Amino acid sequence: MSGGVAALDVLLLLAGAVVLWGAGRRIERATAVLEAGLAFMVGFALATTVCLLLLVAGSDLSIPQFLAAFAAATLAVAALARRLGGRPALPPRRTDRLTTGRRLLTIVPAALLALYLLALLRRTLYSGVEWVDAWTFWVPRAKTIYYFGGLVLGPNGFDAFPHAEYPPGVPGLNAVVFRFAGGADPLELPLQEWLVAVAFLLALAALLARRVPAHILSPALLFVAVTPTFGREIGILMADLVLAVTFALAGVCALLWLLDRRPELAVLAGVFAASAAALKKEGLFFGVLLAGAITLVAPLAGVARRRALLLAVPPVVVSAVWSMWISSHDVHTTNDYRLSDLLDPGFLGDRLGRLGTVLTSLPSYLFDPRQFFIALPAALAAAVLGLRRSPIVARLVLVIVPAGFAGLVVIYWISIQDVHFHLWTSAGRVPGALVFLCLALLPVLITATEEQPRGP
Amino acid sequence: MSRAAGGRYELWHRKASRALALLLLVAMVPAYAASFRKVWRQGSDRASWTRDQREFAGYAAADVDPALLVAARRAIPPGATYVLVVGRRGISAQAALEIGPFSEYALLPRRRVDAVRDAGWVIGYGADVRAAGAPVERVTTVAPNISFAQVAR
Predict the structure, then answer these.
(1) Residues of chain A with pLDDT under 50
(2) Which of B15, B18, B46, B59 is the best residue to mutate to test the A interface, defined by the most A CB atoms within 10 Å of its own CB?
(3) According to the model, what pLDDT value does residue B28 have?
(4) Which of A252, A68, A140 is nearest to B58 (CA)?
(5) CA B105 and chain centroid, separation
(6) Which of A301, A333, A357, B9 gives a 20 to 30 Å CA spacing to A199?
(7) Given this model, what pLDDT does residue A52 score?
């Protein structure tokens, strides 16, 4: 990693720390590393959204422009979180007395996780630009932003590569990485993905440490890490894993907003949901899905549905801004599907056979241990067991998994790609957002089933 | 629910919860071992790669010769334009399909153009650079049927 890129990473960390300070999170020495992970993820999420907005406004993502906009966005979000938050006290961090067995359950998985992350770091440092989508559009798009000064269209421009309709959060931030590195060196990028993955695990621990005891949290984080898509997708320079972890954090923050009654966590959820929409087209679908599911369970926590529905605003606004730019510049896109086809009964009727194929094939990807380990069955089983003791979390999982599945079925149903090819090339990655949210909620459910509930 | 039924439910619930937690812990052991082995092996496989090999690691999927792109990047100035002439002499159908996007990725900020009259350079892949229809000079042959040259002005 060059010194410039290290400076950028410190900047993301500091920006996130400012937002967390605004949200009223007080850092204890024992959890400082975990909070640093959360701060980095908040900074990363903000930066991707800022990149999209700057690009749409015609910026070339020069360092001064990025710094000015990023600082403004950071202060605005911190001020909003400060204005909304800080009323009830946070539940205390779990410091349960540990028996020898529980101490082992804490220390051994944590040590194994650290070892595994080091092995992933080793592979990442030797990694290159291997995956087809990485060199056909993700990396070239970042290069065009860097070399040609923003969203320049035409030959070799932003729209010269497949899927110009994908929002530019990832290529935008990668172009900023190039600026800080002083050159468009794609080998700077894999390590950034590793940092995001590690920061995600730390962030998850920071958010859940107040609800989940260490002897459950530590194995749960290892469970996330050994899910094959996690290890496979670090450093491959595609957006699926970063979308999945960003969306998972949006879900956890939204849930904790309900459970802890802390509106500033809704601000963090909004930051992550907006970023998800800036990272990939599916981010809008998952963001709206999350807002819908949170709206359904919000009354159980005494939060009005209309307030919960506001969670849909950040991803919808980010996607709308991007869509308007695409249409106003008449960009040639290679959409795999058009939602308007859902209103065409003839189109749908002709594809009933395809629907059958999707309905029978998609579950084999979702429940394939080589893709997502046993994440979904585990989360669904824990949700059923946790229905009485942790009804909000359990219902959230039991709503969002079938609804997410139905949404994915519809997308594959109306896609113009060959159904088998489309499933084969994406069904092992795209549902990752849903899976990682379930993985993130699993320790909360396990805790609820293990003991008497401490809160709603 | 009666107290007895409630007690039975609690007992069943506790057993099922413990069983689930135990199952997840047990399932993690082989999963961890397999993931660690795989990641370590992948790291070892890549440890000897050079910088160019890492940057052009996608060549295997594209079935293109990375030596062309390494040499072309050294010879063609960053602001230059190039046209790609693709044939099927000695190269696979996959390579003929993928050399376009792969060279665009590898050679940016050099711009690929469609017409030789707009190009400062010609890259021939499975084809002779002279097939582009313009006089060329400084022909560099990387492999049989794989070469590049500057358009003579």
Answers:
(1) 453-456
(2) B46
(3) 94
(4) A140
(5) 9
(6) A301
(7) 98
Q: Which ipTM value was assigned to this complex? A: 0.91
Nearest Cα to Cα of residue A193 among A160, A211, A170, A227? A170
Report cis status (omega within 30 of 0) of the bond before B109: yes
For B101, which of A109, A115, A136 is closest by C-beta distance?
A: A136
Amino acid identity, position A141: R
Residue among B32, B40, B102 minimizing CB distance to A226? B32
**Amino acid identity at B11:** L
Per-residue pLDDT at A455: 47
Which pLDDT score, from 0 to 100, does residue A2 have?
86
* d(C-alpha B19, C-alpha A453), whole Å: 19
**pLDDT of B62 over the 70 cut:** yes
Burial A203-228 (b: 16+ CB within 10 A, else e): bbbbbbbbbbbbbbbbbbbbbbbbbb
Q: How far apart are CA A134 and CA A139, in angstroms?
A: 6
Task: Sort out which chain A residues have CB atoms less than 8 A from B16's CB and list them.
Answer: 385, 449
Backbone angles phi, psi at B84, to 5 degrees: -105, 125
* Of the candidates B69, B108, B43, B35, the residue with the CA atom closest to the CA atom of residue A128: B43
Cβ separation of A143 and B108 shorter than 8 Å? yes
Q: Is A120–B24 a contact, with Cβ atoms under 8 angstroms apart?
A: no
Q: How far apart are the first and last CA of chain A?
A: 45
User: pTM to 2 decimals?
Assistant: 0.94
Q: CB B20 to CB A161 under 8 A?
A: no
Per-residue pLDDT at A303? 93
- What is the spatial distance between Cα B33 and Cα A150, in angstroms, rounded to a whole number? 44
Q: Say what the pLDDT of residue A88 is.
A: 57
Say which residue the tokens 């695409």 belong to: A326
For B13-35, letters b (16+ CB in 10 Å) and e give eeeebeebbeebeebbeebbeeb
CA–CA separation, A198 and A40 (whole Å):
10
Q: Chain B contacts of A372, Cβ < 8 Å?
A: none
| pLDDT tens string A19-68 | 999 998 877 788 899 999 999 999 999 999 999 999 999 999 999 999 99
A378 to chain B: which residues are within 8 Å by CB? 20, 24
